[in-house]
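Reply to dn_fold:

You asked what the input looked like. This is it:
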Amino acid sequence: MENESEYKDLYKMLPKNRETRQEDRRKLALKDQKLERSKLQDHKRLFLKEFLIAERVKEDSGKKVLFQNKYNFPFSLQFSEWLKEKPDNLNRWFLVPCPKGQRCFIVACNNITEVYNKEGKRIFYFHSKLPGDGVLRNEFSILDCIFCRELKRFFVLDVVCLGNYNLQHCDATFRRFWLKSRLDENMNYNDSDSSYTFILIDWVDFEDEEAIKMNFYKYPHYAENFPLLDGFLFYHKDASYTFGVTPLVGWLFCFMIPEVLGYEINAIYSLEKPADYVNYLFYINEFDKNQDKKIRERRSIIKSEFKEETDVLEETEKIFEKERFVLENYYDIHSSEKQKHFEYTEVDSIHMIE
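and this is what came back:
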């Protein structure tokens, strides 16, 4: 399709087949993931081996560093869909309150900790005590985070690898358990000279009804209301970490909770509704339209910049070609004159001998 955006998986989105119920796609996704886990039983460390042996591309300090180019390894953050339907088995889900900030992933490897945005471009790097940096330099880690720049704080959302353990195909319940236990055991991850800290975001089990209600009523979520609460993610307990968009992770803004899930929320969150708010489905549709428009505009700018760079390169190549032509002619003429001079000198020498 001509207008299809290549960046659609970088934000919350509706499924391409909008007629298919989310619940049906969730069941299909869980079935596929279960089959994938069984295939990988004898290859649990495949991800680790491929990552560690992947050829590192030499960095050019003058260019932006891309994860794909540097590590030559396919990776994408996991992205949510809008939670358009209340799941049939809500007790099989976690509620995850998310602070406002920049979505990113952290890679600790080869004695450095790098921060990449959701498009895979490196934002900056520093030193931490995560496995792969600090004392455990022969290991590596990949964390899914939300970065609050003002606080220099990473709110850890999920984990893909930690200390050479590949957790991508583990279910969300185990990933959460492993991440929490490692962070609790190794609080010195935060004792780095860099001053960046790691905070584990709470995951609340929907089986704990009181805790769920408390989270929807809680205001502010963070001390002094900073950072602000952005909204809520919903993780299926049995879901693997998916590279890209998955129906097994949902997203809602706070003011949508009563309509979709039937829970009451703190009245302050209702004030976040836009003035022209109709209902959550209409809001989602308008939100996605605006996102599509922004992406198209951004894509157009990128194409324009690329065309300008291409034009400059072509013009530079023409200049070089002219210079090469001049130099080649100069050397041809110069060589020809030298040859004539040599021939004249040789004739004179013969006459002198005679």
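The helical segments are 22-39, 46-53, 67-71, 172-185, 209-217, 257-261, 267-270, 280-353.
Hope that clears it up.
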